[in-house]
Amino acid sequence: MRELPEELSRLATDQLGLLTRRQLRRGGVTDAVMRRAFGREWQLVLPRVVALFTGELTPDQRLTAGSLYAGPGALLTGPTAAELYGVTSDWVSAYPLHRFVVRPSQTDRSSGFVVVRRSERSERHPRPLHGIRVVSAARAVGDAARVCRSPRDARQLAISALQSRVVSEQQIYDEAIRGQVQHGQALRQGVRDFAAGAWSIAEVDLQQLLASSPVLPSAMYNPMLSTEGGAVLPTPDAWLDDVAAAIQLHSREYHGTEEDWNHTVMQDGRLTEHGIVVIPVTPSRVRDDPAAVLRHVETTYLGLLDGRRRPTVVATERHHLDVLPEGR
User: Fold this and answer.
1) Strand, helix or coil at 233?
2) Which residue, 55, 50, 10, is CA-closest to 33?
3) Could you give the percent of the chain with pLDDT greater than 90?
4) Phi first, then psi: what are they for 70, rounded to 5°?
5) How far apart are CA 34 and CA 42, in angstroms?
6) Could you give the CA distance from residue 44 to residue 21 in angstroms, rounded to a whole number?
7) Residues 288-309: pLDDT tens digits?
8) What's this model's pTM, rounded to 2 decimal places?
9) CA dihedral of 216, 218, 219, 225, whole degrees rounded to 10
10) Alpha-carbon distance 154 to 161, whole Å?
11) DSSP state of 221
12) Is 182 exposed, middle or buried (0-12, 13-18, 19+ CB in 10 A)?
């Protein structure tokens, strides 16, 4: 990398190899020097944002570049901010843009992977995450809902936010009615889904399917399981208590790494060790061929009623919203 003054070099290190043109000029680097370095050692990754290297930016570098482009006082919001707080969903992870809000006296603009929008709404206590100033968790979720692709995505957003305990039920309701939040009704429905025991939108699909059965009893969702002696067992997605059967949603889509998948398989093994019958289903099958999935579950359930001794496993309902924190 081209030699820089010591102070500028430290700043570049702090900013993951990124500087603005203004920072370079203030550090004594002329426009002529910049022009000679572009395309050889440096690259312009966003207007006025210079990478002191060539090649692809890492996710953290893209975030830092976006913050430098948005300018001092800008706050990260929307899907990326929600993800930094721990909210997870496929569409959030795949959302391609970093969204920032700035004071109303500034201008809307966008370039590449960054969108900057003016906002009248003040943020009293922004949080630093990954070296970036971020709006509150509740606002991040609300702003993410504004760019959701569908009501289904908004429901998943609310469920994930509640499950990760970064917001409270009331905060989601407040955000849903603040301004003109797209999919506000779906956000509120996500709160109701979570209260009913769903930890993902795929579990909502499963709940609706099982509830439609004239054969199955009412299922429990994500209950706490323990042995008669008090040993804690893995939590099943759905539970048929009279026959001690666990219905598990399994998909590579919901297990990001091989380690996650292996952990899931081991958890199923722990259930079967205690005499619990595990009925595996996949989210895509529930969505695309629900009748076949329901027949499979019903057939298994009826078979278990025929002379099988129920293992001594205790299932306790969870009261999901009772454990939510006062939001941050």
Assistant:
1) strand
2) 50
3) 65
4) -65, -35
5) 8
6) 9
7) 999 999 999 999 999 999 878 8
8) 0.79
9) -120
10) 11
11) E
12) middle
Beta-sheet strands, E only, within the chain:
18-20, 43-46, 49-51, 75-77, 98-102, 109-111, 114-118, 127-129, 132-134, 220-221, 224-227, 232-233, 238-240, 245-249, 277-281, 313-316
Q: What Cα–Cα distance (Å) separates residue 147 from each residue in 136, 182, 284?
A: 17, 7, 24
Q: For the purposes of burial, counting CB atoms within 10 Å of the CB of 293, is it exposed (0-12), middle (13-18) or buried (19 or more)? A: buried
The residue type of 127 is R
Burial of 89: CB neighbours in 10 Å, binned 0-12, 13-18, 19+: buried
For the segment 156-180, what is each residue's pLDDT rounded down to a tens digit?
Answer: 999 999 988 889 989 988 888 775 6
CB 229 within 8 A of CB 223: no
3-state secondary structure of 232: strand
pLDDT above 50 for 131: yes
Q: Are 82 and 95 in contact (CB under 8 A)?
A: no
Rounded Cα distance, 207 and 195, in Å: 12
pLDDT value at position 321? 52
Helices 184-195/169-177 angle, 10° precision:
160
Residue 200 has pLDDT above 90, yes or no: no
Distance CA 141, CA 87 (A): 8
How do 224-227 and 313-316 pair as beta strands? antiparallel
Q: What is the 3-state secondary structure (H, E, C) of 144-170?
A: HHHCCCCHHHHHHHHHHHHHCCCCCHH
Q: What is the pLDDT of residue 228?
A: 87
Strand partners, 50: 19, 44
Q: Is the pLDDT of residue 181 over 70?
A: no
pLDDT tens-digit series, residues 77-103: 999 999 999 998 888 988 999 999 999
